[in-house]
Amino acid sequence: MPSDAVLYQAAALCLTYPDDDLVARLPLLREAAPQLREFTDHAAVTPLLDLAAHYVEVFDLKNRHSLYLSWWHDGDTRRRGMSLVRFKDVYRRHGLEFSGEELPDFLPAVLEFTARTGETGLLTEHRTGLEQLRTRLAACGTPYAGVLDAVCAALPASHPGARR
């Protein structure tokens, strides 16, 4: 398991739709992943309904801040379907069956997979999309930008066969 497993798991929680469970876990997240403190501090003082409204505004209204990694590479094209199959294949090769309500390229799911397996390949292959998302989140001034800053900083250097 990578030394950044706790960070990846904490980031996965921060990037899911905020609910009472997230609020209850904020002290633990703050302690376990100090790299996420900007977000956890913000979430700790923001009412849950406001957190939820902000999440929807940032991630759900436009693809400009898409949390679906294949969207950054393939857009809304037919080849995206093959990319989604590939995500599922990677999960299966590690003994995991993807059965979530979200698509397999949903960033929180990929972060959780990375935390559990130590396999950073899906994240590094989609580094360009992650960097674009990080830049766009920073430009709109959301605390979620700090979560992407920490994830991108923790990624190992790209390998020669990485997708761009």
TrEMBL record:
Source organism: Streptomyces eurythermus
Transcription regulation is among the record's keywords: no
Lineage of producing organism: Bacteria, Bacillati, Actinomycetota, Actinomycetes, Kitasatosporales
Keywords, alphabetical: Nitrate assimilation
Pfam family, one: Nitrate_red_del
InterPro entries reported for this sequence: DMSO/NO3_reduct_chaperone, NO3_reductase_chaperone_NarJ, TorD-like_sf
Protein name, as recorded: Nitrate reductase molybdenum cofactor assembly chaperone
Flavoprotein recorded as keyword: no
